[in-house]
Amino acid sequence: MSFLEYRLKTAPTGARKILHLNWALVLLLAAIASVGFLMLYSVAGGRIEVWSEPQMKRFAAGLVVMFFIAFVPIWFWRNMAGLAYALSLLLLLGVEFFGTVGMGAQRWIEIGPLRLQPSELTKITLVMLLAAYYDWLDIKKTSRPLWVLIPVALILLPVALVMGQPDLGTALLLLGGGAVVMFCAGVHWLYFAVVAGLGGGGVAAVLTSRGTEWQLLKDYQYRRIDTFLDPSQDPLGAGYHISQAKIALGSGGWTGRGFMQGTQSRLNFLPEKHTDFIFTTLAEEFGFIGGISLLILYVLVLAFCIASAIQNKDRFASLVTLGIAATFFFYFAVNMLMVMGLAPVVGVPLPLVSYGGSSMLVLLAAFGIAQSAHVHRPR
Amino acid sequence: MRRSARDTDESARHITRRALFMGGSMAAVAAILGARMRHMQVDQADQFRLLAEDNRISIRLIPPARGLIQDRNGKLIAGNEQNFRVVISREDAGDVEDVLEKLTEFLPISAEDQDRALKEAQRRSPLPIIVADRLSWEDVSKVAINAPALPGVTPEFGLSRIYPRDADFAHVVGYVGPVSENDLAKLETPDPLLQTPKFQIGKIGVETWMESDLRGRAGNRRVEVNVLGRIMRELSRQEGDAGADIRLTIDADVQNYAQARLGDESAAGIVMDVQTGDLVAIASAPSFDPNLFVRGISHRDYNALMENDHRPLANKSVQGAYPPGSTFKMVTALAALEAGVITASTSVNCPGHYEVGGRRFHCWRRGGHGRVSLERSLAESCDVYYYDIALKVGIDKIAEMGRKLGLGMRHDIPMSAITEGLMPNHAWKQERYNEVWRIGDTVNASIGQGYVLTSPLQLAVMTARLATGREIVPRLIHAIDGQVQPIPEATDLGLTPSHLRAVQEGMFAVHNTQRGTAYSTRIEERTMRVAGKTGTSQVRNISAAERARGVISNDQLPWNRRDHALYVGYAPHDAPRYAVSVVVEHGGGGGTAAAPIGRDLLLRALHDGIPPASAYPASQRNRIDAMHRDLNLRDPDSGTPGTSRA
């Protein structure tokens, strides 16, 4: 308990809520975003107006949204969960029909001047709905098959829509976030063991079926797997990006080549250097020290969220906070695994650092809900 | 939903447990990430750093300036000129076709070149596309001024070969050209320089034979490139070494005179220093402008050269193999003298023909020469004398003497397609035709007909050796990079001095006795009197029927069936300095077509300038003066001597 909370034992009202915000978390988020501003300035070749400045404006807007959401009592958000989920599903369907194609996939929908990526929005609304579901459900029924199937269906619906775009990265994040909420709500671990077992078996089947008559994937899909496993096989084709990313990362050494001195990014060898692959620039210019520092900042965000969730006696508030933490975790973990060559390239940005509006806004909105849960926890 | 306090506690306990488990898992993944980061960035850092350097640093070659070729006095024969060209960089141009179209407003670019440039633009290569080459300074300036309207277009400078004395040295020095696939295939480990665009290498002549000296060593610069290969900045630069300058033994002015003197004839002429073997002039006419080949010759020009029946592309001076005709008679005479079958005073009766083996061989003079001595046989070129002595000495000894004097062998000078000629003997015919050598073959060979073939270069060497009695070897390279090349010590040929003198006196008589075949081309100056020998070699067989009708004079024959005219000579006869050989293809008589040229070349070399009229017999002076006035000679001071590379 912080000093401020010690002084204000009772549930805060009005402007006093500001004192009860999880300020440490806000500072952590601001620190991470600042790393982003710095790197965007660097990859733009020392120009602030290219990526860094718009990103700052978005962050400022995101903070306002976050504070606004934090001030609204958490029960309101719980009651809105169903509606929010339905709305995001509608938007996903809208993308299917009216969406703008970008980077080879349908991801955006344009409403007036706003360019929205509904798949990003779905990441929170799904977590909110699942938390609300388990808040409503009798605890004793949690592990009954029928009551397990309902949330599974709620997860798979948006996952299917996102896969169709196709956006494998977001689909994985939705699956992960949803599963974590179910896990934390107390669904029996055997269900997870079975799914994990089936998943592992499936992968094994896909890999062993190669070259046989019942081959499960197309040849080109296997070649992508090969490229992932050994990018040097195809250094100028699909493996090029990942090879160059690894070179940038590896060449950083302990302390890096210095701010704005990264040759890989400055000379355009790096792909997507301001979006998905921005971590490699950080690692190249600030080395292991820089990379590990950002990782520690991310882990601290997780720690603060988990601690806040454990302290919170409200079931919805705890679950939603954990779900948001998990989504955040999957963001940075998948991105880092990807740029380090440990996972295939699936197109997940580095949270709060990569250039991009939708994910920044959605993440800050999500942390707004976590803040609201923290401010309005039962005392 | 309202819950009991117990439910709420249980829920909280559950969540806490699961949340801690989840947090632990996430921490584990984060730990893996950290460990992987450490592994890549600390343990493998050196390896990745190397790869990054590899990515960013590219080594570009700086082509060296090609060595100059100069004449023996330093006058420029082959130099380098600044070559302005315009290139387009794909990356900056964007739409190459569009830029190219705009460029044609400022530069004359042929449709052919435009097509080639567009085709090149299709290829994914970091090298800029060369759109126009060999531009004038004005054109380049126009492009430079309009640069803002022409994205990606930059003027570039390079060096290109130029031959300021155009046709004079085409056959000696040859020319350079772009590296072809063929050139690369011939080399086992090609110099990486050869892959640089528009690099020029020697294609023929001295340019190709002295390539390793002329090329020089490439410098290099380490540059930082971006992902498209475009140069961002230069990191370091190491200049290469320019190619070595080469000085030829040739005197550019004598060469120019020789080339002009041969004129429109299909002919070759060589002037050689008899003491050192230095080749002072190697002329072959007609010639061509080697600059055409450097710039890329047009089909029309090339076809014109190919279709010309005087074969301008053939280097007749070293490639041409001609029956030497009577210029061979010194070989036969020396062979007989050395073999001891005749002496200097042996004489033979010439009735105008010679019967052997049931065949009748004719002397060129139908009525015969009567009793001829060795001296007269040379002076008046009696054939029967040689038929007679050749049968006494035999072909093998004649061939041996021919080789001793430099015939039938390849002289090693850095020029292309040097012929070996042919010095036949018994063994050769057996091997070549699987036939026995016949007496008639010896008779023909004795006067330089039949199988015997010689090049003008070989004839010049022969003459130099006859003049000195020493084994003079031709020499073309005077100095490489300022290092004067050693003149090999010429060993004595081991000929009996009295025999040699007898032959030399015969050659002197050719010019200096009233009945000598080259009396009209004598030199009047006492100190420079000339010794020589004319030759007229048949290029067709004269049938008995033709002979019965009377031999048709050359003037009545079509050009390509006329006799070759030959001449060899040296001067001054008592202290020899220069030897010449001249072949005029289908020129008719050696005394009228070749000997005058030979004398003029000798005088030009001896006087180091246009010979004075006093050198010529009084009756010829007006004619010679007129001829010299008409010769289209280069101003002797025009070739810039020394080091200018422009």
Automatic annotation (TrEMBL), chain A:
GO biological process: cell division; cell wall organization; peptidoglycan biosynthetic process; regulation of cell shape
Catalysed reactions, as listed in the record: [GlcNAc-(1->4)-Mur2Ac(oyl-L-Ala-gamma-D-Glu-L-Lys-D-Ala-D-Ala)](n)-di-trans,octa-cis-undecaprenyl diphosphate + beta-D-GlcNAc-(1->4)-Mur2Ac(oyl-L-Ala-gamma-D-Glu-L-Lys-D-Ala-D-Ala)-di-trans,octa-cis-undecaprenyl diphosphate = [GlcNAc-(1->4)-Mur2Ac(oyl-L-Ala-gamma-D-Glu-L-Lys-D-Ala-D-Ala)](n+1)-di-trans,octa-cis-undecaprenyl diphosphate + di-trans,octa-cis-undecaprenyl diphosphate + H(+)
A GO molecular-function descriptor: lipid-linked peptidoglycan transporter activity
Membrane topology: Multi-pass membrane protein
KW Methyltransferase (keyword) present: no
Transmembrane among keywords: yes
EC number(s) from the headed UniProt entry: 2.4.99.28
Function: Peptidoglycan polymerase that is essential for cell wall elongation.
PANTHER family attached to this UniProt entry: CELL CYCLE PROTEIN, PEPTIDOGLYCAN GLYCOSYLTRANSFERASE MRDB
Entry protein name: Peptidoglycan glycosyltransferase MrdB
Originating organism: Szabonella alba
Lineage: Bacteria, Pseudomonadati, Pseudomonadota, Alphaproteobacteria, Rhodobacterales
Gene coding for it: rodA
TrEMBL record, chain B:
Domain Penicillin-binding protein dimerisation: 62-235
Location of the protein in the cell: Cell membrane; Membrane
Cellular component terms per the entry's GO annotation: plasma membrane
UniProt keyword annotation of Protease present: yes
Gene3D superfamilies found in the cross-reference section: DD-peptidase/beta-lactamase superfamily, Penicillin-binding protein 2a (Domain 2), Penicillin-binding protein 2a, domain 3
BP term (GO), one: peptidoglycan biosynthetic process
Entry's EC annotation: 3.4.16.4
InterPro entries: Beta-lactam/transpept, Beta-lactam/transpept-like, PBP_dimer, PBP_dimer_sf, PCN-bd_Tpept, Penicillin-binding_protein_2
Transmembrane segments: 20-37
Domain Penicillin-binding protein transpeptidase, residue spans: 269-602
SUPFAM superfamilies named among the record's database cross-references: beta-lactamase/transpeptidase-like (SSF56601), Penicillin binding protein dimerisation domain (SSF56519)
Alphabetic keyword roster: Carboxypeptidase, Cell inner membrane, Cell membrane, Cell shape, Cell wall biogenesis/degradation, Hydrolase, Membrane, Peptidoglycan synthesis, Protease, Transmembrane, Transmembrane helix
Main location: membrane
Domain of life: Bacteria
Pfam families: PBP_dimer, Transpeptidase
GO molecular function: penicillin binding; peptidoglycan L,D-transpeptidase activity; serine-type D-Ala-D-Ala carboxypeptidase activity
Membrane topology: Single-pass membrane protein
Protein name: Penicillin-binding protein 2
Species, as recorded: Szabonella alba
